[in-house]
Amino acid sequence: MSFLIHNAYGIGGTIRTTYNLANALAEQHDVEIVSVFRHRDEPVFTPGSRVRVRHLVDVRPEGADAGDPDLGRPARVFPRAEGRYEQYSALTDRRIAEHLATVEADVVVGTRPGLNAHLARETRRGPVRVGQEHLTLDSHPAALRATLRGLYPRLDAVTTTTEADARAYRDRMRLPGVRVQCVPNPVPRPGIDPADGSGRWVVAAGRLAPVKRYDLLIKAFDTVRAQRPDWRLRIYGGGRQKDQLRELVDRLGLYNHVYLMGPAHPIEPEWAKGSIAAVTSSMESFGMTIVEAMRCGLPVVSTNCPHGPGEIIDNGVDGRLVESGNVQAIAQGLLELINDDALRQQMAHAALTDSERFDPSRIAERHESLFSALLARGGNSPGGRARGALHRARGALLAGVYAVRDAGRTASGKGRTS
Amino acid sequence: MMTPAPSAANQHVHEAPVTAPRADCVADSAGGLTFDVTDRGGSAPAHLLLRRRDSEQEVRLPLSPAADGRLRAALPSSVELPEGRWDVYVQVSDGEPCRLAPGVNDLRALVDRVPGAAPGHVAARIPYATKYGNLTVRSWLRDPHAEAGELLVGKDELSVRARVYGTRLAPDACVELVARKAPAAVVRAGLTADRSEFRFTVTYPALRPGLWDLWLRPDGETGPRVRIARLLDDIADKKPIFIYPKVTLETEYGRVTAGPYYTGDNDLAVKVAVVE
After folding, report:
1. Greatest CA span in chain B, whole angstroms?
2. Minimal Cα distance from A31: which residue of B?
3. What's the CA gap between B221 and B206, in Å, rounded?
4. Which residues from A are below 8 Å from B18, CB to CB?
5. Model-level pTM?
6. Looking at domain B145-274, which CATH architecture does it have?
7. Domains of chain A with bracketed CATH
8. Least confident of A224-238, A401-415, B252-266
9. Cβ of A255 and B10 within 8 Å?
10. For the segment A291-325, what is each residue's pLDDT rounded down to a tens digit?
């Protein structure tokens, strides 16, 4: 299996997810991660010893490709409407094309739309082509959606991180013969004991960006403080909104109760210091921090925003979903768990159990069964079209069956615990 | 034109980590720390070496086999670690010490820590990552100790709630503000005590522009001085996290801003600055 990623040497959700998945798949398979760029000597995340990591373009200051004139020439294959377009070039076009023309793998996986476009156009005949979408269809500009609509039919499968996003691709993209399937992101078990629920701390973690709506969380904590001044809030993460949020904390006189902690890596020990996690985003394409916190034994109070939280949290069982954008609803959600120690402990326990379904081994199995189904039906690539429409029709049918079965599993899973 | 396919030179196979070895650190509520490092094999005895920055002081702790192929060293609260920053190394027999990088620091036991009321040192040790990504332990050793709690910023004053450890508050206990650049300039504030807890108020107009350090005088003006600090949690550097509003006011020195902050040693101070 060969993963194609923007930059395996940096920090970010997609990078972490890809390493976790690759490590789990490498238990059974030969796995490589191919990084388009390399900007530093060592990756931040350590891949398992069985995963090979290599790069296509070396952009380190003394790197082999530093100063290559093609780095300055615009990319033609990488879609112009993609968010990372400016970083791509004639050189990346050429190196990615060469890689995909010769790749020795049964399954080639792209990890962002621009790379999926390369996969669709340039993968040699043979391997199964899987395009991962880590963001959501809604978040893509219209021009990118139009480009992808033309190219994604040449993929064998598109995976999304939520069922909601998978529905969006099925309903709005019309991808005949392409299996569209939700496979959530993997989150490994933390290397520390779960939180014991005794600390009177609410913890949040994420970039201090407008989409995270930490302003709502801070305002909600003003209400919490009025009732329970013994509880406090830590927000981990850095970002452009720091000064604004600081000002809000001061204006509300919450400087003894709300702390902006700065970035923390690893984050797991910081979750373990809290007893409740809070997510107040207006949008979460998946909701990685929710799963991370649950795996550390924290029930999560989260806004029921698109797309991920409602698919992760079993409302009232292992966490609490509250109305998006509503300060009082957030405060009431927090106070419900703060004021009821038994309920909080019960939800914490359920959070630990219910989040096991995101373990890399379990998520890798879901990818594996997708890959084997695709291999069994044969590629959907243009060269494979001679195999006829029957295969593709059957593939499409199977996709439907799988989707129903997945939905059924989710539904019965929720019924079991409530 | 074809470019040659990327050669084997760009293969990055992770068999041996080339980065610094990491230590996972667990704190207990008494102030003790354990360090776990990966056993690199070999039969030579290994030690964890703590070197106090800008001094010759060293503390050597034996590394003993622990669970799952790791080596563990313990720094119990009973081992005295003078105040300062202690860089952490691993040393195999008499070899060159190798600086450790932080792994997972599990410091949950330090959050909202309340040391016993028995007399004796209050010891705080907080492991942290330096700006170069190395592991260092920040140590404080205070006897007695005055721990700052909530600060309340008023229109032209600052109210402080604090607690003293290791001594009693005499009826004439008070707080002193000492000008950092002119230690002879002292402003006193009375305090309200409730056993070991106490409260006091700093009136900003009484302070001329400059930095003021806050001390507790548990036995009144003639007794020993105890620095008021914030040490009893998991945060090695309070300054960027414990931030308080500044107020602007007219004083006999002109228009000034005034507000509390924690120093690089986590001691409580007040800054009064003239508005230009």
Report:
1. 89
2. B13
3. 18
4. 42
5. 0.88
6. Sandwich (2.60)
7. 2-182 (3.40.50.2000), 201-358 (3.40.50.2000)
8. A401-415
9. no
10. 999 999 999 999 999 999 999 999 999 999 999 99
